[in-house]
Amino acid sequence: MNPHGMHIAQQSPEAALAALGSSARGLSAAEAARRLIEFGANQVTAAPRDPLWLVLLREFSHFFALILWLAAALAFVAAYFDPGQGMFELGLAIVGVILVNGAFSFWQSYRAEQALSALRQLLPQQVEVRRDALTLTVPAAALVPGDLVLLGEGAKVPADCRVVEASGVRVDMATLTGESRPKAREAAPDAEADPLAARNLLLAGTLLVSGSCTALVFATGMHTEFGHIAHLTQTAGEVESPLQREIRRVSRIVALLALGLGVAFFAIGHFVGLPFWANFMFAIGIIVANVPEGLLPTVTLSLALATQRMAKRHALVRHLPAVETLGCATVILTDKTGTLTQNRMTVRELFFAGRHHLAAKRWPRGADLHLRAVARFCHNLKFPGDQPSGDPMEIALWQFGGPIPEPGPRVGEIPFDAERRRMSVISRHEEGGQYLWCKGAPESVLPLCTSWLEGHLAHPFDAAAQDLFRRAQDDMADRGLRVLACAWRAFPEGEAAQEAGLQLCGLIGLEDPPRPDVHGAVQRCHGAGLRVIMVTGDHPHTALAIARELDLIRTPQPVVLTGDLVRRMSPASLQLALAAPEILFARVSAEQKMLIVQACQAKGEIVAVTGDGVNDAPALKCADIGIAMGLSGTDVAREAADIVLLDDHFATIVNAIEEGRAVFENIRKFLTYILTSNIPEIVPYLAFVLLRIPLPLTVIQILAVDLGTDMLPALALGAEVPHAGVMSRPPRPRGERLLSWPLLARAYLFLGPLEALGAMAAFFFVLQGAGWHYGETLAPSAPVYLQATTACLVAIVLAQMVNVFVCRHPQLAVWRFPLFGNRLLLGGLAAELGLLLVIVYTPLGNALFGTAPLAAAVWCYALPFALLLGVMEEARKALIRRWL
Predict the structure, then answer these.
(1) From residue 512, how far is each of 6, 335, 345 by CA, in Å?
(2) Which residue segments constitute the domains of the chain, with CATH numbers given?
(3) Which residue spans traverse the membrane (predicted)?
(4) Do residues 472 and 479 touch, judged by C-beta distance below 8 A?
(5) Terminus-to-terminus CA distance in the chain, angstroms?
(6) Which of 301, 561, 801, 872 has the fewest CB atoms within 10 Å of its CB?
(7) Overall pTM surpassing 0.85 (yes/no)
(8) Active-site residue numbers?
């Protein structure tokens, strides 16, 4: 026996039962128990997860955290050998930063996982099974190969099964294939060996929309098609986000720069004759001044705030870096069914009386009476209440038929099967006689017709009429509609019901309609320079019609590739095919969708993939950013995704892209803001060594700026809402750096020196006011020295309070942004000023940070330098706008 059942579809029901050692009585209880031990539980094995302690540990052991650990260790060493210099407090503060940042990052990831913990069961929990000729209800996990399961309308298929008895079975395969149309299933042997195509196989995770059957289980757990796709998902490697790569790069550059400068200036200090521990403290000060300790907390908090904004816009972010990754996406590979469309059938168009009619339009009353009668009465729907349940296509037809007079009680049925591709219902008329109502594929129904109806007139169904209806059928099919032919006949009571001599009522075209907001969202994608490519398991005609309706395809001859073609193409050929201006993929399997993702990535694209089915999960995991549907999506898809859309609206993706683009810009804003203060923190140490003056700024005061006063305003910059023009430009180039040369030049060569000028001026203003002379040594506890370093600190913070406004945009003027447009910014500035006053004017602040109260004259002296920074930066922006 082949455990994967690749040939079981070709066997007769009896042969299939025999091959699996089963019978019409089912397995015995003892044999089922034995096989459960041999084959294992009917469960998809979850991907191995790292223990929580290891996940938490990683948050404290990445490269940037290691640099901070090193800085803390050096501070503790200095405190041990030269106590009383504030080094111990500095080390504690740095450790606190590492712990808070790591714990917050861990909590964000853990909370997102917990939000999805209730969504991880797709297969049914209980199922009816025949064992020892008795019908039992057992857990789905207890099924084994050889079991006979009894499935009815609305049941989820619990394992891969071979149908052995069937009545009107139609199965929704969308979760595995992406195709929206239910497929008929029967018990007869099928030459097709492909499990997804064989007409007598039911696959785990799919849904019976109509009919009932007895089916033989031939594969369970990870041996099912469902399990195979789950395995692909679990083995797909994690993709590092562009933001993670950039933060890693920035961290290394900044850390190596800080260490390099620390070592260089330690050597300079030794050369000019500084005592060892004073020189060591000086080197640590250089390192601390150049390492932006608040960078990672601010990045994390900025991403967290963006996730909260996205949650309000109905997008759940499972991994924080996914926010920014989506913002730099260049290609969206989107599923059709349930993503662009509503995953429900609707009657869109009719062809009767020799003309096309839109289903929503009105026409002369009674002109379509027979057509609507077939739609209303020819079905296998159930009515548990006022509304029907069953095949979505039959529900759509029933709703279209509307309230019309009953033709009499239903007395018989010729059921649908895959060979005939039609079904008929017989009703008895109250005045005597019977009616036969027939619907099915046009190629199956039209040959049975001898006349066609135009109102109440019947015309011969001659060659001209046949050509008319076939051209109408082709026209509707080319526009992606599923076409059904409807016919009827009256015959005397007592005569056998036959599907012959029918009168053709007309054709009905059904579609899975697009979501109403998708067209506008696609237009926004075009405006933002995003390429949107449909990748679906549905028919190429249907996919192309929907793509044209949504403006995904606008040229007359796009490239349409099916899954078979993708399978036969080499990676290079597929990569070259993606260069076509417009391309569409149809009839695509899970592996092929993943190949398309990898081909796009090989072209240098940053790929976002949307999907809701089990078949989408490997591609969601492999992509740079996976986006799953929260309402209609399967648990496997949600598990594999980075972002889950809580409202299933494609438009929400565009909103998320907007937020993602804003995140990158916001990180650049607070990088500029944070790095600017590095220069006024370094210059005092350079002056201390090279000019032999008292140290204008202590290490603990540097930390007060980096981790205290700067943090909330930087966070406020990270919370800036998307700018109006963020979706009117193309995605940023893949190679564009977060820490660019223009950013460094602006922070280090322009804004930083302006701040340093004000800081040093304030320091010397206090010293000269107290009568200090060049070359005079001051004790670290001298009141004038404490006031002078405090003045230097105050000047830096005041300049940063102005700097936060000019950093809101690298080119636009500060007055273009409303003052109350970012309330967090005002709150951050208020907190910054409040913390500064605590540091300067409270005994606790003076003791912790080595400060002393300042007279009002010092504040008045430092403030113009801060305003000068704002004026100079706005002048620079004006020049850039004029040049551009």
Answers:
(1) 32, 13, 5
(2) 8-46+126-235 (2.70.150.10), 53-111+239-314+657-883 (1.20.1110.10), 324-342+515-648 (3.40.50.1000), 365-507 (3.40.1110.10)
(3) 63-81, 87-107, 253-274, 280-306, 743-765, 785-807, 819-841, 847-872
(4) no
(5) 73
(6) 872
(7) no
(8) 335
